[in-house]
Amino acid sequence: MTRHFDFIGKSLPRTDGWEFASGAAVFANDISLPGMLQAKVLRSPHPHARIEHIDTTKAKRLRGVKAVLCETDVRIRYGSPFIKDKHVFAVDKVRYFGDEVAGVAAVDLDTAEEALNLIRVEYEELPVLLDPIEAMKPEAPLIHEDLMRYEVSFDCERRGNVCSISRFRVGDVEEGFKEADLVFENSFTTQIQHQAYTEPHSALSSVDLMGNINVWTTTQVPFRLRSYICDALGLRMNKVRIMTTKVGGGFGGKKHHIVPYSLLLARETCKPVKITWTREEEFMAANPRHAAIIKLKTGVKKDGTLTAIKAELVFDTGAYSDFGPAILPFGGQFVAGRYLIPHIHVDGYLVYTNKINCGAFRGFGNPQVTFACESQMDIIAQELSLDPLELRLKNAVQPGDLFQTYNRPFLSVAFREALNKAAEKAEWKKLRTERKANRGVGVAGMIHITGLLGSSALVKINEDGTAHVVAGSTDVGTGTSTAIIQIAAETLGLPPRRISLVTGDTDFAPFDAATVGSRVVYSMGNAVKDAALAARRQLLEAASTKLGVPADKLTIKEGRILADPQDPAGGLSVGEAASFGYKVGDGPILGTGRFLQHVPPLDPKMVTGFPWASHPFPNFVHGAQIAVVDVDVETGEITVVKMISVHDVGRAVNPMGLRGQLIGGLCQGLGYALMENLVYDEKGRPLTLDFTDYKIPRTTDIPVYDVDWVETDDPVGPFGAKGVGEPAFVPTAAAIANAVYDAIGVRLTEIPLTAEKVLRALGRI
Amino acid sequence: MKKDITLHLNDEIHELTVDTRRTLLEVLRNDLGLTGAKEGCGLGECGACTVLLDGEAVNACLVLAVDAEKAEITTIEGLSQDRTLDPIQKAFIEHGAIQCGFCTPGMILSAKALLDRDDRPTQEEIKTALSGVLCRCTGYQQIIEAVAAAAEKTGTARPKGRRSES
């Protein structure tokens, strides 16, 4: 059934687009306050060392330096929410090249930088662990000697340098292997990928005499940031105000990390303090995607029916745990969910090494697992002489099937439709049969979440019939602000131009969990819809009293409340109803809304080591992507000619914005597949500290994109919509690797797929 | 060392005293309060700081302010005249070419430099002209489409059929 919408499904241009196009948009580093100081952080020049002594005397004496802080001044645990293993400034030890040792606030950046050079730190170097497999060995030196004593927030199984172990058990995997005709065992490796948002981290903090704290920063998670700061510093939330500036790209990386370095120095100096990371610091010390080693053992019958999967995941978290304890099982849960596999056995290990502290990045552990699983699907198809698409279609989940890792049915599924539609758009059969030399085509499927945790919102109807939506979720550039306005417009019967969004301030906006997990349109969208429905009810009640018509006989169209839809000039305007409301009705029109989707906790017999087991993920999306590549067998260079992407979006709220999300995900996934890699030398020193050495796709690297979607009209999503922020990234690398195999007959199991690896695989070097 | 300089910026004249080590980007952002040009890397790799010097797109982080004295400088703030957005700015909004928006000023000014010298660029010429600006959000497609659409609009006012000779 086709539903009619006035504003949902329309390609409304970004309501805030003019700010960016004109240069008016204010990012964190664009803000200055009178008397503001600049801060810099002293970073460790060693990947692993004991701090013997820190002498800040000379730095403090430098003219223009207002404060210097290090472990002897503040020992505050901050940054790792699940295993409290990190301090703002390193205490006793540094654990990677770039670890924060001290902070300086000075009158200008030159002075702050000069002061860093005057801080004397004596280190005793310690053995360096760079390989997570080596780090897992019982005899390996410990990176965190106190791991077993750290405070943890979940059932954290840990030992040695393994800071968290996650396990999934469904059915009996050995039984599943017995049922199989063939068992495939393969190992896959993925690299550290940096979010490489174009805007570096920046934060500005001020503290007044009464201890009220104001923070302006580029963050996806203003409320979570507030909570972390309050926890770490023992503050009350009514004293801490987070103001989210424009966020110049997040992708999971813009969270809470930078803020204490400005806040602690602001508290120390009683002056506003700004800190902005350089691009070098970003590549040295942010929170990129975990490198992973993934071993898969998969049982399959001769006809292609999957019977069992056993996975061992090793995620290299670097120096600290950060979000790793959640990222690992998040990825682990998705060994299943695309295909029905009755027996599942996953052991995941999160391992410390002396490298950059890895964290959340678009896909959150899923891209690593999907690269492995979807590559192996093609290995299986090849061995069974099956078309890779047919193998997928044969096993793909359908409506009514369970998400087996949770033992819970899907709410809406269109995986097969996505696969078929992608194949049709790509002319899959033609490409597979009409071979062109060194050209290949590859497919990959994916499952991801949409939504988690709670959101709340307000809708205020003004006396002139305009409205304000107050919603605290950050628009990190994905256009959620516009989508939220469309959702409010559709619910209220007001044109979008009459609705403004108030956001970016934890003092003004009601609570929102975070801009993560492809959740804003889904979760905040539902909260806004709920608030708009409440405001609509109040408007109709006010109009009902005024017009003497029962509220259920009234409708709102183009800003007018009508008793007779055939008479668009009749009734009264929304403004008149709002004015009536606050003068003689039941009061001003104010809709409050909130949303949380309840899901049963996971069975501890099936899942352990999952920090969110008590409130697991409520809903899922599927998608399919196809890559067409050319491989130059002389140079090893891979050119992605075309990428086709089809995702279940539930409902396309804004097709233009949606297209941008899918294309953007494909491009970032292309970088993951082919070029991006954060590299260390054998001593643990980072080698990729700028955009020359850490390459991301430029205009000249892009393929032809062909993106589309399937609408499942999800029963819970607002107007049926589901999240689309992360999915297009997730299967891209696997689709490209499968296409490369199809082109040259050589299977590459390690990304990025560099020319060197291609030539080695071909035996040419 | 400080030096008195005169900058011809966005059709205005600015007289100021600057440290000779300061880049044009620093002076624009810190001394003149024009924060539309962004610092994404400080090394000339990302293009977020792109401004026009005599109509050419350059990285303001690689130009010393004292060396910009003789040029006509245009920043993103100078592109919209009389409260009206430039056709390229409009096209970026209408074609979904803006996501996080951090690269947008650099992209728009790079496009401006291109369209001012060639109002009918090919797809490949657009890609080349924008290749100095990194965007991490859009995958570039809608940006390229926006520039092509802006070329269509501005190009119709000029002789048709002319192609780039390069």
Question: If you had to describe this structure to a student in words, what would you say it looks like?
Answer:
The complex is a heterodimer of chains A (765) and B (166). Chain A has 765 residues and is of the alpha+beta class. Helix content of chain A is 27%, strand content 24%. Chain A has 19 helices and 30 strands. In chain A, the strands form seven sheets. Chain A has a seven-stranded mixed β-sheet, with helices on both faces. In chain A, strands 7, 8, 9, 14, 15, 16 and 27 form a seven-stranded mixed β-sheet that branches. In chain A, strands 19-28-29-30 form a four-stranded mixed β-sheet, sandwiched between helices. Chain A is globular. By secondary structure, chain B is of the alpha+beta class. Helix content of chain B is 32%, strand content 16%. The model of chain B is unreliable at 157-166 (pLDDT under 50). Classes of the chains: A alpha+beta (765), B alpha+beta (166). At the A-B interface, helix 1 and helix 17 of A face helix 2, helix 3, helix 4 and helix 5 of B.
Any idea what the shape of chain B is? globular
Number of strand elements of chain B: 5
What is Rg of chain B?
A: 16 Å
What's the story with the biggest beta sheet of chain B?
Answer: 5 strands, mixed
N- to C-terminal distance of chain B: 43 Å
* Largest beta sheet: strand ordering of chain B: 2-1-5-3-4
Uncertain residue segments of chain B: 157-166
Q: Based on helices, strands and strand pairing, what is the structural class of chain B?
A: alpha+beta
Q: Work out the number of β strands of chain A.
A: 30
Largest interchain contact: A-B, 55 and 54 residues
Cα shape of chain A? globular
